[in-house]
Amino acid sequence: xxxxxxxxxxxxxxxxxxxxxxxxxxxxxxxxxxxxxxxxxxxxxxxxxxxxxxxxxxxxxxxxxxxxxxxxxxxxxxxxxxxxxxxxxxxxxxxxxxxxxxxxxxxxxxxxxxxxxxxxxxxxxxxxxxxxxxxxxxxxxxxxxxxxxxxxxxxxxxxxxxxxxx
Length: 166
Hints:
The chain has about 170 residues and is α+β, with helices and mostly antiparallel strands. It is built from four helices and five strands, in the order H-E-E-E-H-H-H-E-E.
Protein backbone atom coordinates (compact mmCIF):
# COMPACT_ATOMS: atom_id res chain seq x y z
CA UNK A 1 0.00 0.00 0.00
CA UNK A 2 2.86 2.39 0.80
CA UNK A 3 4.39 1.74 -2.62
CA UNK A 4 1.06 2.53 -4.32
CA UNK A 5 0.71 5.83 -2.41
CA UNK A 6 4.34 6.75 -3.21
CA UNK A 7 3.82 5.94 -6.91
CA UNK A 8 0.60 7.96 -7.00
CA UNK A 9 2.34 10.92 -5.34
CA UNK A 10 5.21 10.80 -7.85
CA UNK A 11 2.77 10.72 -10.79
CA UNK A 12 0.87 13.66 -9.34
CA UNK A 13 4.05 15.68 -8.91
CA UNK A 14 5.21 14.75 -12.41
CA UNK A 15 1.95 15.89 -14.04
CA UNK A 16 1.89 19.04 -11.91
CA UNK A 17 5.44 19.97 -12.93
CA UNK A 18 4.50 19.88 -16.64
CA UNK A 19 1.07 21.50 -16.30
CA UNK A 20 2.28 24.94 -17.41
CA UNK A 21 4.76 23.67 -19.99
CA UNK A 22 3.98 25.43 -23.29
CA UNK A 23 6.20 23.06 -25.31
CA UNK A 24 4.03 19.99 -24.81
CA UNK A 25 2.11 20.56 -28.08
CA UNK A 26 -1.28 21.45 -26.57
CA UNK A 27 -2.99 24.63 -27.65
CA UNK A 28 -2.29 27.18 -24.94
CA UNK A 29 -3.96 30.48 -24.13
CA UNK A 30 -1.15 32.46 -25.79
CA UNK A 31 -1.30 30.31 -28.97
CA UNK A 32 -4.42 31.98 -30.37
CA UNK A 33 -2.43 32.84 -33.50
CA UNK A 34 -2.39 29.12 -34.38
CA UNK A 35 -6.19 29.06 -34.84
CA UNK A 36 -7.31 29.75 -38.42
CA UNK A 37 -10.87 29.75 -39.73
CA UNK A 38 -11.40 29.91 -43.47
CA UNK A 39 -13.54 32.62 -44.99
CA UNK A 40 -16.37 30.27 -45.87
CA UNK A 41 -16.59 29.03 -42.26
CA UNK A 42 -16.36 25.35 -43.19
CA UNK A 43 -12.79 24.51 -42.19
CA UNK A 44 -11.10 25.13 -38.85
CA UNK A 45 -7.32 24.68 -38.57
CA UNK A 46 -5.93 24.44 -35.06
CA UNK A 47 -2.22 23.82 -34.54
CA UNK A 48 -1.76 22.14 -37.96
CA UNK A 49 -4.80 19.83 -37.52
CA UNK A 50 -7.71 20.47 -39.88
CA UNK A 51 -11.31 19.77 -38.95
CA UNK A 52 -14.05 19.98 -41.58
CA UNK A 53 -17.37 21.44 -40.55
CA UNK A 54 -20.37 20.42 -42.63
CA UNK A 55 -22.87 23.29 -42.52
CA UNK A 56 -26.48 22.63 -41.57
CA UNK A 57 -28.49 22.44 -44.79
CA UNK A 58 -31.79 20.97 -45.94
CA UNK A 59 -30.11 17.67 -46.81
CA UNK A 60 -28.52 17.41 -43.36
CA UNK A 61 -31.74 18.45 -41.62
CA UNK A 62 -33.88 15.93 -43.49
CA UNK A 63 -31.39 13.09 -43.12
CA UNK A 64 -30.91 13.58 -39.37
CA UNK A 65 -34.29 14.88 -38.15
CA UNK A 66 -36.70 13.80 -40.90
CA UNK A 67 -40.32 14.85 -40.54
CA UNK A 68 -39.57 16.97 -37.46
CA UNK A 69 -37.29 19.18 -39.60
CA UNK A 70 -39.82 19.30 -42.45
CA UNK A 71 -42.64 20.31 -40.09
CA UNK A 72 -40.56 23.01 -38.38
CA UNK A 73 -39.43 24.47 -41.69
CA UNK A 74 -42.99 24.43 -43.04
CA UNK A 75 -44.31 26.18 -39.90
CA UNK A 76 -41.66 28.87 -40.12
CA UNK A 77 -42.25 29.44 -43.86
CA UNK A 78 -46.06 29.64 -43.50
CA UNK A 79 -45.70 32.03 -40.56
CA UNK A 80 -43.31 34.18 -42.55
CA UNK A 81 -45.69 34.17 -45.55
CA UNK A 82 -48.73 35.12 -43.48
CA UNK A 83 -46.91 37.84 -41.54
CA UNK A 84 -44.93 39.49 -44.32
CA UNK A 85 -47.22 39.09 -47.35
CA UNK A 86 -50.84 38.45 -46.34
CA UNK A 87 -50.94 40.95 -43.45
CA UNK A 88 -49.68 43.94 -45.53
CA UNK A 89 -52.01 42.96 -48.39
CA UNK A 90 -54.93 42.85 -45.94
CA UNK A 91 -53.94 46.26 -44.59
CA UNK A 92 -53.83 47.66 -48.11
CA UNK A 93 -57.27 46.11 -48.79
CA UNK A 94 -58.64 47.81 -45.65
CA UNK A 95 -57.31 51.18 -46.77
CA UNK A 96 -58.70 50.69 -50.29
CA UNK A 97 -62.11 49.67 -48.92
CA UNK A 98 -62.29 52.66 -46.57
CA UNK A 99 -61.32 55.06 -49.36
CA UNK A 100 -64.11 53.71 -51.55
CA UNK A 101 -66.58 53.56 -48.64
CA UNK A 102 -67.09 49.79 -48.79
CA UNK A 103 -67.79 48.72 -45.20
CA UNK A 104 -67.98 44.99 -45.93
CA UNK A 105 -64.59 44.97 -47.63
CA UNK A 106 -63.02 46.79 -44.68
CA UNK A 107 -64.48 44.18 -42.28
CA UNK A 108 -63.19 41.31 -44.41
CA UNK A 109 -59.76 42.97 -44.65
CA UNK A 110 -59.69 43.52 -40.89
CA UNK A 111 -60.56 39.88 -40.24
CA UNK A 112 -57.88 38.75 -42.70
CA UNK A 113 -55.34 41.06 -41.06
CA UNK A 114 -56.13 39.78 -37.57
CA UNK A 115 -56.11 36.17 -38.74
CA UNK A 116 -52.85 36.44 -40.65
CA UNK A 117 -51.05 38.14 -37.76
CA UNK A 118 -52.71 35.95 -35.13
CA UNK A 119 -51.68 32.74 -36.89
CA UNK A 120 -48.53 33.89 -38.69
CA UNK A 121 -46.50 35.18 -35.76
CA UNK A 122 -46.92 32.06 -33.55
CA UNK A 123 -46.18 29.77 -36.51
CA UNK A 124 -43.06 31.75 -37.36
CA UNK A 125 -41.81 31.71 -33.75
CA UNK A 126 -42.60 28.02 -33.20
CA UNK A 127 -40.88 26.94 -36.41
CA UNK A 128 -37.83 29.09 -35.70
CA UNK A 129 -37.50 27.67 -32.18
CA UNK A 130 -37.70 24.11 -33.46
CA UNK A 131 -35.10 24.79 -36.14
CA UNK A 132 -32.82 26.47 -33.57
CA UNK A 133 -33.13 23.45 -31.30
CA UNK A 134 -32.15 21.15 -34.18
CA UNK A 135 -29.19 23.35 -35.13
CA UNK A 136 -28.01 23.43 -31.49
CA UNK A 137 -28.28 19.64 -31.29
CA UNK A 138 -26.40 19.26 -34.59
CA UNK A 139 -23.63 21.60 -33.46
CA UNK A 140 -23.29 19.81 -30.13
CA UNK A 141 -23.14 16.35 -31.70
CA UNK A 142 -21.16 16.96 -34.89
CA UNK A 143 -19.02 20.09 -34.51
CA UNK A 144 -15.25 19.56 -34.48
CA UNK A 145 -13.86 19.25 -31.00
CA UNK A 146 -10.09 19.55 -31.18
CA UNK A 147 -8.19 18.34 -28.15
CA UNK A 148 -11.31 17.14 -26.40
CA UNK A 149 -10.66 14.39 -23.91
CA UNK A 150 -12.23 13.28 -20.68
CA UNK A 151 -11.50 10.93 -17.82
CA UNK A 152 -14.45 9.22 -16.19
CA UNK A 153 -14.71 6.82 -13.28
CA UNK A 154 -17.65 4.49 -12.93
CA UNK A 155 -18.86 1.08 -11.86
CA UNK A 156 -18.11 -1.95 -14.04
CA UNK A 157 -18.90 -5.65 -13.80
CA UNK A 158 -15.66 -6.28 -11.90
CA UNK A 159 -15.66 -3.22 -9.62
CA UNK A 160 -14.66 0.33 -10.51
CA UNK A 161 -13.32 1.37 -13.93
CA UNK A 162 -11.35 4.33 -15.26
CA UNK A 163 -12.01 5.43 -18.88
CA UNK A 164 -10.00 7.92 -20.96
CA UNK A 165 -11.95 9.23 -23.96
CA UNK A 166 -10.23 11.23 -26.70
